[in-house]
Amino acid sequence: MASQQKGVGILAMDIYFPPTCVNQDAMEAFDGASKGKYTIGLGQDCMAFCTEQEDVISMSLTVVTSLLEKYGIDPKQIGRLEVGSETVIDKSKSIKTWLMQIFEEGGNTDIEGVDSTNACYGGTAALFNCVNWVESSSWDGRYGLVVCTDSAVYAEGPARPTGGAAAIALLIGPNAPIAFESKLRGTHMTHVYDFYKPNLASEYPVVDGKLSQTCYLMALDSCYNRFCSKFEKFEGRKFSLADADYFVFHSPYNKLVQKSFARLYFNDFLRNASPVEKDAAEKLEMFRTLTGDESYQSRDLEKASQQAAKHLYDEKVQPSTLLPKQVGNMYTASLYAAFASVLYNKNSTLGGKRIVLFSYGSGLSSTMFSLQLQEGEHPFSLSKIAEVLDVSSKLESRHVLAPADFVENMKLMEHRYGGKGFVTSPDRSLLLPGTYYLTEVDSMYRRFYAKIASNKDNSGNGLMSNGH
User: Fold this and answer.
1) Is 250 a catalytic residue?
2) Which pTM value belongs to this model?
3) What is the pLDDT of residue 467?
4) Do strands 164-173 and 9-16 pair parallel, antiparallel, or not at all (unpaired)?
5) CB-neighbour burial class of residue 114 (10 A; exposed 0-12, middle 13-18, buried 19+)
6) CA pair distance 449, 58, nearest whole angstrom
7) Dist. CA 88–CA 117, nearest whole Å
8) Strands, E assignment, 258-364
9) What is the mean pLDDT of residues 340-356?
């Protein structure tokens, strides 16, 4: 198979998030927080969460099955399957191995790839692995498949409202409507303790919130500068915000996305890369001499740059915020849910557009990269992707639960974490047709899943497990 395939990128996408959620304004009242702390302070509207019946495996089974069905993909057409996740189900057995049940049934066990892990960056690492495989001389002509899946949960306290859950599946191949500009990539990786999960007996992370935000912005600066250098090297001119139609950020919470785009605007101002309105330039000029550390801590700079960048934010970033604000932080799936929001909101106008994405995972790993979009041909077209994503219908079909129900669910999940010898509730009324769910974990820690029959299923609820 010839190497250097053209237009390698994303052919198809689908997303799944739990049908259970809680409103952030209700959480404010329940927690006794000041009004607007979560909705304005964090910029969040709603938070999805997994009940005892769902986890990263069930969500992955659901989204992969859905993508294959909706795009008419034969399981034998998949040659590489990569999973990105930081939600630990097993310290040895990869989530990818559970997903192999789908492909085994289709007679395909010849699939490379396993899981990638580093906080919220694992999905991007998995995606790059698949793209690199298709671009390489190792490619055998079949599709790559990437799954980003996580359940973001926190202990009681200020970080709990920044949770969420989702799984996204991305089909990778050549001549894609969403093609990678592989030469335009800026990466920053280093060692830091801003968010980590050292306690294997608990699902909850250790979080230094202030440090994590600073690390995020530092990584953003570094990646943007390297991305701009690559662009100038290959294009022969400076890159500025005007050279991309949309910017998509990893979104732990929307307020950080607002700060991030304003940071890029300030970077362009420092680089003299694009014209800045006179009033904005005068307000930003006083911050030109700040050191990097000083600038990350300056609330005045943060406020001034957000005000200066707001008109561009509304145009270039706002379309990406729908799912992150409604579902919450999805860890590895967060960036790609934001990207899916753009595709859903703007699909009819995206032909010929460039979208720049920033991926960040604490610890830390980060990359800024670029995609070029074209309408494509059915079934791999932007319009088909938007149709399959069906974001509004998926959001509208959710069940909004009371904060007390959410807290009780969290207590049950804490008790069950790492446990064995239990069955889940027989009440499946909140789950939609086509959804996989956890039925039990037996005395040997083996997990068993079943599927709510959909209209297309002839076999009813088929039980799935790890080899049984």
Assistant:
1) yes
2) 0.94
3) 38
4) antiparallel
5) middle
6) 7
7) 9
8) 354-361
9) 94
CA distance 270 to 221: 12
Bridge-based pairing state of the strands 164-173 and 178-189 = unpaired
Which residue matches tokens 């910017």? 247
**Catalytic residue list contains 378:** no
pLDDT digits (tens, 9 = 90+) for 170-198: 999 999 999 999 899 999 999 999 999 99
Packing angle of the helix pair 403-416, 24-31 (nearest 10 deg): 80
Q: Out of 46, 120, 215, 228, which one is annotated catalytic?
A: 120
Of 188, 215, 250, 302, the catalytic one is 250
Is 235 catalytic? The answer is no
- Pairing label, strands 246-249, 365-373: unpaired
44: its two tokens: 């969040």
d(CA 80, CA 72): 18
Amino acid at 194: D
pLDDT in tens, 229-286: 999 999 999 999 999 999 999 999 999 999 999 999 999 999 987 777 888 888 899 9
* In contact, 87 and 50? CB cutoff 8 Å: no
Neighbours of 303 (CB within 10 A): 12
Cβ 18 vs Cβ 164: under 8 Å: no
Q: Name residues whose C-beta falls within 8 Å of residue 331's C-beta, 6 or more positions apart in sequence.
A: 85, 86, 87, 119, 120, 150, 152, 164
Among the listed residues 28, 82, 86, 135, the single catalytic one is: 86
Could you give the dihedral angle defined by the CA atoms of residues 419, 421, 423 and 424, in that order, rounded to the nearest 10 degrees? -10
